[in-house]
Amino acid sequence: MDIFGATTLVRIRHPKRSPFMSLAPSEFRQQVRSGRLSGPTAGYCGDFAQANLAILPRQSADDFLRFCTLNPKACPLLAIGEPGDWRVPALGADLDVRNDVPAFYIYRHGERTEEVRSLNELWRDDLVVFAIGCSFSFEEMLKREGIALRHLEQERNVPMYRTSEANVRAGVFGGHRVVSMRPMKAADAIRAIQITSRFPSVHGAPVHLGDPSLIGIRDLSRPDFGDAVDIHSDELPVFWACGVTPQAAIESARLPFAIAHKPGHMLITDIPNTRLAIL
Amino acid sequence: MDIFGATTLVRIRHPKRSPFMSLAPSEFRQQVRSGRLSGPTAGYCGDFAQANLAILPRQSADDFLRFCTLNPKACPLLAIGEPGDWRVPALGADLDVRNDVPAFYIYRHGERTEEVRSLNELWRDDLVVFAIGCSFSFEEMLKREGIALRHLEQERNVPMYRTSEANVRAGVFGGHRVVSMRPMKAADAIRAIQITSRFPSVHGAPVHLGDPSLIGIRDLSRPDFGDAVDIHSDELPVFWACGVTPQAAIESARLPFAIAHKPGHMLITDIPNTRLAIL
């Protein structure tokens, strides 16, 4: 089993009729903190960046930082906390990472042992928070330009695949790159490359397009994580480095203790997606 | 027959041992003007933009300008001359367009009637010079990043194809978009999209990649202009709008009188390729 439970990702449901739709990120986090909101975060606070989380003991943090730095397409860092600090002011002044995420997964020696809604009882003075950019940000930018995203049209999770492309190893962290796939017409793929190139902190430009076998993917209809989506005959599969990559690296490292968000249940930050554009 | 003679494009030979290799553009133009240089210009003055030329009577110039403006991918304008003026200071202070191009084709009523090395005898007070960006500029930028260009490796002209994509019509000018094709691995194609996006005045980003039949190309091994090139199994064909498009539009318009450069025999300008970057 995938220790990060990505095979059991919840269905994305856009909260079209939710009373929480118009909340600011700090208000949304307050709702989560008080226990009034506990589901997946897709579709909430669409103008603001959501973050993948990896929370590791300091002993592993240096290697993990090096891993992220050496694999920036898959592991673009939005912020790093101070050791022991559950505040990450760069992501939100009032943020309490222990309680502002709808659900966490706890891993011990490479096995997922618990799912919790608060880290109050588990927090340690040696834990370091890593916040990693999420494709929700660039998907917002694609949607604004009218580029259709099949997994959203089909109300599925984006399909993700393990590839044959080895990550650059750093200490115990290695493994292979995971990619997400979005089918597009060629003109949309070209425009999507332009748009996402402006957002390196949320995976940036695609890493591949066209023939999936060239990066070790045998069957697009059988993703390793998420759900398969339809691909039309006039479309190309377009592949982006995926935030599941660091999770797979942590999985293979079999750390004694590690924490991540429950997939789809992200940390909503105060960072406007537009501010992530490098130009 | 194609009135612009693109089917008879000369072979590209890079002038590796030419004594003219290190010339500045103004020196190169002086060599052309004095008759010491008359061949194709590929490979000369590689840091500077070369231009496609269309020289039309004022009566057709307004429509042609509108055509270029409405079809900017295929017809990116580097400069327009004043009616009757053979100087184009925007492209070079000392430039004499009548004599600084190695060879011209003359068209009368849609037929190519002459090839000349000077326009001194043919110049008219109503002629308007249009200088249109050339892919040589973005190819320089691709080469600098180590992206191999198959037609250069194979010492051929780039393959060009008529597509099923109609140009936006302006007066007598219409026709269909012509594209050039360069085969690339996916990662190079993505990088090439990023690089060429910075250079809209020399055709900018590709207009298509992947399945050629989607833009009306039946057989990549049979280009309409230029030469076929090898495509490897791990490569995608990547298609850019091509400077032959305005020539095809002029061809179909059957103007009583028009002038163009002989394909491959370009006007070398004083504009550094790097200055064409929009960012």
UniProtKB/TrEMBL annotation, chains A, B:
GO MF assignments: lyase activity
Membrane-spanning segments: none
Assigned keywords, A-Z: Lyase
Gene3D superfamilies for this protein: PSTPO5379-like, PSTPO5379-like domain
EC number: 4.2.1.-
Top-rank taxon, per record: Bacteria
Pfam families for the chain: D-Glu_cyclase (PF07286)
NCBIfam families: PRK05463.1
UniProt similarity note: Belongs to the D-glutamate cyclase family.
Name of the protein described by the UniProt record: Putative hydro-lyase SAMN05444165_2343
Organism: Paraburkholderia phenazinium
